[in-house]
C-alpha cells in the first residue's frame, strides 16, 4: 500500500457509490437530510440522485440511506481498482494509527489465547510496564467488563484498551502462580510503534535490518539503525523487505535516498489528474557506496517495491528472493463529512527505467488478492523456469541488466520455496499451528526459568530441545490427526528444534529474539549472506 496524506502457506514462516463518483470525477459533494447529493457545476444532475431519491421516497420498507450509500461506495471503488477503498469512521483511527508511528493506549502487545487476552510483551517504559504488568499475564476484566471466556476478539479488545492519553483504565489480571486476581489502574499514554522489527550484526561485517512497513517514523528509524550497525563494524547491509506491504511514499523515497548517490532517479508518478512528477535522490546518504542486498517476496508491495525497484534500476546492490506482489498504484486519502475517509488511487508510480509493476486487475478483488495462489499452481514459487515475461515488458538498466514490468519486481537472484516431499509432515504440522502453540504454552509455563538466561545468545547456546519436548509435539500432532512415519518424524525432529527455540525466544525476549535464532533455516537470508561473502572473497 502506497499513499499520500494531505496463503497458501508452504513453510511455517510463510502465511462508499455516490461519494466515490464525486471524488473520482472531481465533482462537488454536499449532504442534505442525511443523503449525499452530487451535482456538476450548473443545473445538470446525475441519475444516481434520482435513484436514491426514489429509494428514499418510494421503497416498500424503511431504508437506512446511510448504509445504502456506504454499500454503493464500497462496490464502486472495488470495481475501479483493488486499492481504492472507503474507510468507515469507526475504524479510521485504527487504520491511520498503523502508519502514524504511535497510538494512545496501555502499551502492550497481546493475542487472544484460549479465549483470553494474553499479554505477549509490555512496551519498555510504557504505562503497563510502569504499573507492574508482566508478559504472560491474562486480562480477565477491563473495568467492569468480563473479557475472559466470552469469545472476545482482537477488535473488541483494542476498543477497550486503547483510549486518549491520560485517561485511566482498571484491569483485573490473572497471573501464573498467583491464586487471586490482581488489580491494576493503568494511565494511558502515547505508545510508539516501530517500522523496524530488528536490526543486528549477522557477523563482523554483515548487518541486517528487518523493515516491516513505511510509517511516518521509518526513515528516522532507518538512519538510527544504520548508524548503530556502522558503529559495530558493518560494511555490508541486508535490508529485509519481505512481507512489507508498504505505506508512505515519502518514507520509501527517504530510505532509498540513503542508498543512492545524488541526482539518481528514485521513482516518478503520473495520473490523469496528477501531472508527471519525478523524485530524485537529493541528500548525502549514509549508505551510497557500500554493499547492499534487498530481500523481497510475494508479500512485498508498493513502497517496498519502490525501494527495490529504485536500487535495481540504478544497478545498485542485489535484489534476492521471489517476485514481489505487484502494486504500482498510489492512493491519496480524502477525509469525508461522515468522519470516514476514501483512499483513492490518483496515480501510478514508475521505476527509474519506466516500469509500471502493477499486476493485472480484471475487476475481481478477491481474485486479485489471491493471485499468489496462482503462483503456486503455475509452479513459479518452486522454480524460476516457470516464470515468463512478454518482450513488451522488458526494460534495460543503465548497466545493461534486463528487468521486467507488468507484475512485481523480479529479483536478480530467485530463491524458490523448497518443494521437498520429505518435509511434508513437518510442514503440515507447523502450518497447522501446532509448533507455534506448543512453543507458546511452553514459554508461558516456564517463563521464569527461561529468563534465567542472561540474553538471547546464551538461551540459544544452552537451551536444549529435549526428546520429551519432541514427544509432546508429536502427541499434539497425533491429536490433530496429523500422522507421519518414522522417517517423517526424524526429519521433523531436526527441523522443529530451531523453530521451536525461535518461537520461545520471541515469546519471552521479544520479536527481536526470533530472527537470529531462525536465521540458519531462512533460505533467502542464507543466499544473501552467501552472495555478500562471495563478493568479499572475489575482492580479496
Please, could you describe this protein's structure?
- The chain is α+β, with helices and mostly antiparallel strands and 540 residues long.
- It has 19 helices and 25 strands.
- A hairpin with a 2-residue loop joins strand 17 and strand 18.
- It is globular and about 65 Å long.
- Mean pLDDT is 87; it is low at 3-43.
Question: Layout of helices and strands, plus pairs?
Answer:
Blueprint: E1 2-5, H1 18-24, E2 28-32, E3 35-39, H2 47-58, H3 65-80, E4 85-87, H4 89-100, E5 102-105, E6 108-112, E7 117-122, H5 127-131, E8 138-142, E9 145-146, H6 154-161, E10 168-174, E11 182-187, E12 189-192, E13 196-201, E14 206-211, H7 218-231, E15 236-240, E16 247-248, H8 249-257, E17 265-271, E18 274-280, E19 291-296, H9 303-313, E20 318-321, E21 329-335, E22 341-350, H10 365-369, H11 371-378, E23 394-396, E24 402-404, E25 413-414, H12 424-431, H13 434-445, H14 447-450, H15 456-462, H16 467-479, H17 486-509, H18 514-518, H19 523-539
Parallel strand pairs: 1-16, 1-21, 14-15, 15-19, 19-20, 20-25
Antiparallel strand pairs: 2-3, 4-22, 5-12, 6-7, 7-8, 8-9, 8-10, 10-11, 13-14, 17-18, 17-22, 21-22, 23-24
Amino acid at each position: 500500500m502506497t499513499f499520500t496524506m494531505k496463503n497458501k502457506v508452504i513453510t511455517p514462516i510463510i502465511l462508499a457509490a455516490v461519494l466515490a463518483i464525486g471524488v473520482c470525477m472531481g465533482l462537488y459533494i454536499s449532504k442534505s437530510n442525511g443523503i449525499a447529493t452530487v451535482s456538476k457545476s450548473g443545473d445538470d444532475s446525475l441519475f444516481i440522485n434520482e435513484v436514491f431519491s426514489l429509494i428514499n421516497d418510494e421503497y416498500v420498507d424503511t431504508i437506512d440511506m446511510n448504509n445504502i450509500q456506504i454499500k454503493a461506495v464500497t462496490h464502486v471503488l472495488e470495481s475501479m481498482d483493488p486499492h481504492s477503498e472507503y474507510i468507515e469512521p469507526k475504524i479510521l483511527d485504527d487504520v491511520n494509527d498503523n502508519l502514524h508511528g504511535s497510538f494512545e493506549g496501555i502499551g502492550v502487545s497481546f493475542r487472544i489465547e484460549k479465549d483470553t487476552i494474553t499479554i505477549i510483551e509490555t512496551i519498555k517504559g510504557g504505562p503497563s510496564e510502569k504499573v507492574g504488568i508482566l508478559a504472560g499475564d491474562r486480562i480477565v476484566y477491563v473495568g467492569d467488563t468480563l473479557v475472559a471466556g466470552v469469545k472476545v476478539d482482537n477488535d473488541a479488545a483494542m476498543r477497550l484498551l486503547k483510549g486518549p492519553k491520560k485517561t485511566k483504565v482498571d484491569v483485573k489480571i490473572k497471573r501464573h502462580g498467583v491464586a487471586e486476581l490482581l488489580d491494576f489502574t493503568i494511565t494511558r499514554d502515547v505508545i510508539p510503534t516501530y517500522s523496524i522489527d530488528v536490526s543486528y550484526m549477522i557477523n563482523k561485517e554483515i548487518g541486517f535490518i528487518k523493515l516491516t512497513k513505511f510509517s511516518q517514523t521509518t526513515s528516522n528509524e532507518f538512519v538510527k539503525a544504520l548508524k548503530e550497525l556502522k558503529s559495530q563494524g558493518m560494511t555490508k547491509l541486508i535490508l529485509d523487505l519481505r512481507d512489507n506491504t508498504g505505506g508512505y511514499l515519502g518514507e520509501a523515497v527517504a530510505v532509498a535516498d540513503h542508498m543512492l548517490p545524488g541526482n539518481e532517479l528514485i521513482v516518478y508518478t503520473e495520473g490523469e489528474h496528477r501531472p508527471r512528477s519525478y523524485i530524485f535522490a537529493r541528500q548525502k546518504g549514509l549508505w551510497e557506496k557500500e554493499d547492499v542486498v534487498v530481500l523481497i517476496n510475494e508479500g512485498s508491495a508498493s513502497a517496498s517495491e519502490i525501494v527495490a525497484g529504485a536500487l535495481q534500476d540504478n544497478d545498485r546492490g542485489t535484489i534476492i528472493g521471489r517476485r514481489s506482489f505487484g502494486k504500482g498504484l498510489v492512493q491519496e486519502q480524502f477525509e469525508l463529512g461522515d468522519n470516514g475517509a476514501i483512499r483513492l488511487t490518483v496515480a501510478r508510480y514508475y521505476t527509474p527505467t519506466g516500469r509500471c509493476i502493477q499486476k493485472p486487475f480484471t475487476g475481481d478483488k478477491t481474485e486479485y488478492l489471491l493471485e499468489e495462489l496462482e503462483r503456486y499452481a503455475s509452479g513459479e514459487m518452486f522454480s524460476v523456469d516457470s516464470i515468463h515475461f512478454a518482450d513488451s515488458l522488458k526494460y534495460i538498466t543503465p548497466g545493461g541488466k534486463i528487468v521486467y514490468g507488468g507484475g512485481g519486481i523480479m529479483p536478480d537472484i530467485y530463491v524458490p520455496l523448497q518443494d521437498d516431499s520429505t518435509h511434508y509432515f513437518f510442514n503440515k504440522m507447523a502450518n497447522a499451528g501446532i509448533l507455534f502453540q506448543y512453543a507458546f504454552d511452553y514459554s508461558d509455563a516456564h517463563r521464569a526459568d527461561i529468563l534465567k538466561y542472561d540474553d538471547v545468545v546464551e538461551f540459544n547456546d544452552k537451551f536444549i530441545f529435549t526428546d520429551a519436548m519432541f514427544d509432546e509435539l508429536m502427541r499434539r500432532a497425533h491429536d490433530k490427526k496429523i500422522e507421519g512415519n518414522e522417517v517423517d518424524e526424524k526429519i521433523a525432529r531436526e527441523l522443529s528444534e530451531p523453530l521451536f527455540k525461535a518461537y520461545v525466544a520471541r515469546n519471552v525476549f521479544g520479536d527481536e529474539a526470533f530472527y537470529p535464532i531462525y536465521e540458519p533455516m531462512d533460505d533467502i537470508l542464507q543466499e544473501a549472506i552467501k552472495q555478500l561473502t562471495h563478493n568479499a572473497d572475489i575482492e580479496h
